[in-house]
């Protein structure tokens, strides 16, 4: 025993086995904790377009150029592959019969409206010539209904000073457009002076003739008279195509900068509507839109930059 006042050194108590160890007679192995890695790496989507996506974007820019050229062709009424009168004539070939309305005014070379002038309209229907005629009213106006769309001959017949003056024109009657059930054509005719008719040759070869003719149909074979409103709609469509092409090109550049497939598909969808006469941009735009869904989206590993030091 220790004497009184003597300090007893501290000794840690001996670790005893737990209850399980006493029952089994086995001791739990004592070892330091260890960690292991599965090798998994976190990844994120690559913000840049896949090379296939870049190729499609360049293809869409080419489509936009085609759409712009299509629109430029429409907007150039006097030039281009197809002109307004040719475009309207093609539409008239498939239009229903008796769906054209034709109206306008008749005046002389001084601008005075001609009253009771005869407006005679004739057209070829499967080898048979049909016709219809009306007289101008007190304001020089006339109107036909239930005519067939397409090409027609319009004769303006004026009785004056015992002579019959006939002015012949080639006219394109507009077919129904979009949701309209009736196509409207409005033209104003100016009858030349009596001196101009007197200078015209007679059809029978005589020096003087009772029926004097001025025939303008020969000069109007390539481009007949047509409603000015129909031509303006044709030009407006051209500017619409050009606008869509520029917008689609802008979306394509945006897709190249941001790497967004959604924006690229939007550009391809817009380029689809730059149709034109031969639907070149339309077909190519559909192909580009389909290919955009096959573009893979690569992923890049998310690494700790501290390990790169």
Model description:
The chain is α+β, with helices and mostly antiparallel strands and 309 residues long. It has 2 domains: 51-75 and 234-293; 84-222, Immunoglobulins (Immunoglobulin-like). It has 7 helices and 10 strands. The protein has a 5-stranded mixed β-sheet with strand order 4-3-6-7-9. A 3-stranded mixed β-sheet has the order 5-2-8. A hairpin with a 2-residue loop joins strand 3 (118-125) and strand 4 (128-135). Helix 5 (228-258) runs antiparallel to helix 6 (261-271) and helix 6 runs antiparallel to helix 7 (280-292). The longest helix has 31 residues, at 228-258. The two termini are 65 Å apart.
**Percent of residues in helices:** 25-40%
Mean pLDDT: 82
| Second rung of CATH, namely the architecture of the largest domain | Sandwich
Q: Order of strands across the widest beta sheet?
A: 4-3-6-7-9
Taking all Cα atoms into account, the compactness measure Rg is 43 Å
Give the H and E element order. Answer: HEHHEEEEEEEHEHHHE
- Count of DSSP H/I helices: 7
CATH class of the largest domain: Mainly Beta
CATH homologous superfamily designation of the largest domain: Immunoglobulins
Number of domains: 2
Strand content: 15-25%
Shape: rod-shaped
Structural class: alpha+beta
Number of strands: 10
Largest sheet, described in full?
5 strands, mixed
Reported by name, the CATH topology of the largest domain is Immunoglobulin-like
Cα end-to-end separation: 65 Å
Could you list the spans in which at least 5 consecutive residues all have pLDDT below 50? Answer: none
